[in-house]
Amino acid sequence: MAHLAIITQLEQKRDQARSGGGVARVEKQHERGKLTARERLEVLLDHDSFEEFDMFVEHRCLSFGMQDKQIAGDGVVVGSGMINGRLVFVFSQDFTVHGGSLSETNAKKICKIMDMAIQNGAPIIGLNDSGGARIQEGVDSLAGYAEIFKRNVLASGVVPQISVIMGPCAGGAVYSPALTDFTIMVRDSSYMFVTGPEVVKTVTHEHVTQEELGGASTHTRKTGVADLAFDNDIEALLEVRRLMNFLPSSNREKPPTIPTNDPADRVDLALNTLVPDHANKAYDMLELISSVADEGDFFQIQPEHAPNILIGFTRMEGATVGVVANQPMELAGCLDIDASKKAARFVRFCDAFNIPLLTLVDVPGFLPGTAQEHHGIIKHGAKLIYAYAEATVPKITLITRKAYGGAYIVMSSKNLRGDINFAWPSAEIAVMGPEGAVEIVFRGSVANDEERQTRIREYREMFASPFVAASRGYIDDVIRPQNTRWRICRALAMLRNKDVQNPWKKHDNLPL
Ligand code: HXC
């Protein structure tokens, strides 16, 4: 009987913890179109796979009457679960309990699952919905943030870390997502800023809304702080599940292989006419990516930020491949500061997690102008060189059209340790475009426009082709566009056991 009473008490305590901040606050959460912390975990994780820890944890704060405001769990739900049968560790901040604010004990719960994730080689997924530091606790809460940041850094490159922003994320709290690999926001219900609109108004006299300052569109387009945004909680969580399918559980594993019915030797005749006859005409690089990918599936990251470069995951013969591609439809595919940073971080993620890289090149150069130079394109462009040169995963490059100057070198050229470098017959590999080259080489010596055109034609025939580069071995082969998928699949298969080590160092000093 006594035993039964204890069991009843246990279940009552569990029910109490599960009810979070109570019916009224849960209703308010729903009215805002948001799910609760536990409902979110139900969508994110495989059915019945959630193993919860620390359900009975309570805070230890005695200030401001907090001793009378105990809610089991203390504002965050933590534990492990499965995504498509693979282990992940999760925390989900509960806005209905003290606004999901971070207390000393709440932080300890998050740190516990982060430690377990690192030790067990499984990804960490954080669902953020919090008013920030628990104001009543002061420095204990700040110490808690520091403990989380420290673990974000130690876990970086060891296990994938994904942050989903599903409500407020303000103040120093933004730095945990910023330290993770991918940040996903929910449109209209999430925002991220270091200081909110009120403080901004006081300090700089600027009037700005929460949405303008740090809403999803600001961070997915302008700043690049967030990688993706979705319309609601459910869509965002289902896309996290899809993203997870491309990633390995840790740096000790290869990404999962998903069986495909798409033949590796599929030929695509449409690619033969993808590149327009006129050199300055744009075409959509996404068409090439869909053509080479298994079943045309491409999980694009940061589609709206620096759209002149495309990054994302695809699969070839079932195995994950990271794609980096210039997009001629935007800024003619030029590399600028944002594109360099976007691609460099992605290349480093792929290299850290054993994901081979496919680089598709059509780049007229770095974007000229004072705006770029004065904001440090030299340092930011160097990030991409650095990322490609240090990466030891298999790297395959295909030049479809332009590959000029420094931008040719940057985009995973042979001499930056590209493993297999292909070009289409339409490739133009040169120090610069024919028009610019003639302008400089024949400055003052060209009599008229007719002669200029002749010189341009001569230059194009001599240099603006893949064959000079191929004759030097900088291009391994010139391939027919229709054969692109199977040539890349073969190259990837050949490189599957590639083993290259970089020299020993404490750590590198990449140009931050
Ligand atoms: C304690 C908090 C809290 C916090 C919210 N609550 N934020 N409790 N500490 N930081 C509580 C509220 O008291 C309320 O409790 C419940 O959560 C819901 O809050 P509301 O204000 O009613 O909700 P809403 O109107 O939606 O406004 C949400 C909000 C607002 C914009 C987040 O609560 C807010 O401005 N909070 C303070 C944000 C803040 O300044 N945080 C500190 C940032 S500095 P009841 O019991 O009434 O439901 C920081 C430093 C971190 O975080 C540094 C790390 C290095």
Main features:
17% strand, elongated, alpha/beta, single chain, 2 domains, binds hexanoyl-coenzyme A, eight-stranded mixed sheet, 512 residues, 2-enoyl-CoA Hydratase, Chain A, domain 1, 17 strands
Summary?
The chain contains 19 helices and 17 strands.
Task: Give the SSE layout.
Elements: H1 2-18, H2 23-31, H3 37-44, E1 51-53, E2 76-83, E3 86-93, H4 104-120, E4 124-128, H5 139-155, E5 161-165, E6 168-170, H6 175-179, E7 182-186, E8 191-193, H7 197-204, H8 210-214, H9 216-223, E9 228-230, H10 233-244, H11 285-292, E10 298-301, E11 309-316, E12 319-326, H12 337-352, E13 357-363, H13 370-374, H14 377-390, E14 395-404, H15 405-410, E15 420-423, E16 428-430, H16 434-441, H17 449-462, H18 467-471, E17 477-478, H19 484-494
Parallel strand pairs: 3-4, 4-5, 5-7, 6-8, 7-9, 12-13, 13-14, 14-15, 14-16, 15-17
Antiparallel strand pairs: 1-2, 2-3, 10-11, 11-12
The structure holds hexanoyl-coenzyme A.
Hexanoyl-coenzyme A (HXC) binds next to helix 5 and strand 6.
Structure explained in plain terms:
Strands 10, 11, 12, 13, 14, 15, 16 and 17 form an 8-stranded mixed β-sheet that branches. The model has no long low-confidence stretch (mean pLDDT 95). This protein is α/β, with parallel strands linked by helices and 512 residues long. It has 2 domains: 14-60 and 69-244, 2-enoyl-CoA Hydratase, Chain A, domain 1 (Alpha-Beta Complex); 269-427 and 465-494, 2-enoyl-CoA Hydratase, Chain A, domain 1. The protein has helices at residues 2-18, 23-31, 37-44, 104-120, 139-155, 175-179, 197-204, 210-214, 216-223, 233-244, 285-292, 337-352, 370-374, 377-390, 405-410, 434-441, 449-462, 467-471, 484-494, and strands at residues 51-53, 76-83, 86-93, 124-128, 161-165, 168-170, 182-186, 191-193, 228-230, 298-301, 309-316, 319-326, 357-363, 395-404, 420-423, 428-430, 477-478. The protein binds hexanoyl-coenzyme A (HXC).
